[in-house]
Each structure stands twice: as C-alpha cells, then as structure tokens.
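Sequence only, no structure available. Ideas?
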Amino acid sequence: MTGRVLRIELPHHLRTLAQVSGEVRLAVEDPVTLARVLDALEARYPILRGAIRDHDTLRRRPFLRFFACQEDLSHDPPDNPLPEAVAEGREVLLIIAAIAGG
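Reply:
I predicted one. Tokens follow.
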C-alpha cells in the first residue's frame, strides 16, 4: 500500500496483543481519517480486530480514547480527516486506555 506514513502509539495491552513495541508506523491512503487508520491497523494486525472497536458496529470500545495534537478525537465522526500534522507523520495519533474508578 502506498500512502502517508502515520505514527500510532498504542496502549500497553494492545501493544502486547499485537506483539509490537514502541510506536507503530502505518501507511494510510488519503484522505487520512480515523476509520482508515483503524482499518489499516486491523489489516496489519488482525489480532486487534474487535479490541479497538466493536466487530459489528465499528464503534470505539468504551475504555479507549483517541488523541492527536492535544485534542480528544474520541467523539468525532470516524470519517473526519485527522489533523494534517498526524497525516504527515509529524505528530503521533495516540490510542489511550481510559481508567475508571471511584
């Protein structure tokens, strides 16, 4: 696949599941959207299918959040373009495991 090379930081449990360390570099076609990034990530690491988003609805799992350029993108439509700095690989797309407690 050709395209832009993005940098993605996964939370520890997803890095362990995918058997990767550090950030993942991934080629994604334009327009670079969260949906396309997740499609490419799941294609490269099939073990992550269903771990980041639901198999059927493709909605984000409740305890995962998406951040880029100091912005929470978790509730943005998945087909919105990601910030240009992320699309160009200058900034990392962070997938973060949220922590709940009381």
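The first strand starts at residue 4 and ends at 9.
Hope that gets you unstuck.
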